[in-house]
Amino acid sequence: MPDEPGGAGVPARRVLVDPEGPLLVEGPVEVVLEDGSTVRSDRVMVAVCACGRSARYPWCDTSHRRPARTRDGARTRDG
Ligand code: FES
């Protein structure tokens, strides 16, 4: 990333945005959670949950594919 520490010689980390799914980040990845703790994935490509519905948050567990439920039990497409 030319504008970040490390200079132009450091390859940029690539993030793929799926508008209906996770952020796909070239790993390894460390994510700092709201409580300040850090979790790490050493996968080559890491799916980071962007919908907030994953039971394995911050990692995507494909819950974004399932219809969400409202308080009255009705299903919605967007979670
Ligand atoms: S983006 Fe897949 S579970 Fe949230």
Summarize the helices and strands and which ones pair or pack:
Blueprint: E1 15-17, E2 23-26, E3 29-32, E4 38-41, E5 45-48, E6 68-69, E7 75-76
Antiparallel strand pairs: 1-2, 2-5, 3-4, 6-7
Bound molecules: FE2/S2 (inorganic) cluster (FES).
GO molecular function: 2 iron, 2 sulfur cluster binding; metal ion binding
Organism: Streptomyces botrytidirepellens
InterPro entries: FeS-contain_CDGSH-typ (IPR018967), MitoNEET_CISD (IPR042216)
Describe the protein.
It comes from Streptomyces botrytidirepellens. Residues 26-70 form the Iron-binding zinc finger CDGSH type domain. It holds the Pfam family zf-CDGSH. Keywords: 2Fe-2S, Iron, Iron-sulfur, Metal-binding. This is CDGSH iron-sulfur domain-containing protein. It is built from no helices and 7 strands. Helices cover 0% and strands 29% of the residues. Strands 1-2-5 form a 3-stranded antiparallel beta sheet, with no helix packed on it. A two-stranded antiparallel sheet has the order 3-4. The protein has a two-stranded antiparallel ribbon with strand order 6-7. The chain is an all-beta fold and 79 residues long. The model has no long low-confidence stretch (mean pLDDT 86). It has a domain at 15-62. The site of FE2/S2 (inorganic) cluster has 12 residues, from loops.
